[in-house]
Design brief:
- It contains six helices and seven strands; from the N terminus they run E-H-E-E-H-E-H-E-E-H-H-E-H.
- It is an alpha/beta fold.
- It has a seven-stranded mixed β-sheet with strand order 3-2-1-4-6-5-7.
- A hairpin with a 4-residue loop joins strand 5 (about 115) and strand 6.
- Helix 2 runs antiparallel to helix 4 (about 135-140).
- The mean pLDDT is about 95.
């Protein structure tokens, strides 16, 4: 597969500190963990962020504006750089099953947006996005519209549902970070 972009430019307000910089899975940061994981299946892996904050440095795509924490702006900033569909995933979703990529990829050339879902949620920032969406994302951002659901409803979108919803576990709060570390430790103990 060609390109993956890991989103790491949010505020992390619920965590109380930048969660993308927290150590995870034997790596310096959660983001480095995700880069290593997705580098196994993608030719190119980039990180979307407002500025260079990672050590060691990662391949970065900087947001167009450093003052706004908008997922719509992040999508625009990423998609305008490519001429092919890009797999996008948040840095704080460390348990995404790489085998799920095949199901999502089946539809990436037929839809503008192919995203994951489960019986409880639609994961609007986990999937393949066409570069054709860059202009629309920018227009929404300029209108102060930041919810990705609006973009989803304004394009050709396919939601692929998965029964394994544990793979979409998000690390948003300190307790969830502790849980994620325990899950990861358990996985490593079983290898």
């Amino acid at each position: 597969m060609q390109t993956c972009v890991i989103l790491a430019g949010g505020k992390s307000s619920r965590m109380g500190k930048d969660k993308t910089l927290l150590p995870f899975g034997g790596f310096d940061t959660l983001t480095h963990y995700q880069v290593a994981k997705f580098s196994k299946v993608f030719d190119e892996v980039y990180v979307s962020s407002k500025f260079e904050k990672f050590s060691p440095p990662l391949n970065l795509i900087k947001d167009e504006s450093t003052g706004s924490y908008s997922p719509m702006l992040a999508l625009y900033s990423v998609l305008k750089n490519f001429d092919h569909s890009v797999f996008i995933i948040p840095a704080d979703m460390p348990f995404f099953d790489l085998s799920s990529l095949k199901e999502l990829a089946k539809f990436k050339d037929k839809f503008d947006m192919v995203i994951a879902g489960d019986d409880e949620h639609i994961h609007s920032l986990c999937g393949f996005f066409s570069p054709r969406l860059a202009t629309l994302a920018h227009e929404f951002y300029l209108k102060n519209e930041h919810k990705i659901g609006l973009l989803r409803k304004s394009c050709e979108c396919k939601i692929v549902n998965f029964s394994n919803k544990d793979q979409f576990f998000n690390v948003n709060f300190p307790q969830e970070y502790e849980i994620a570390n325990e899950i990861q430790k358990g996985r490593l103990d079983h290898e």
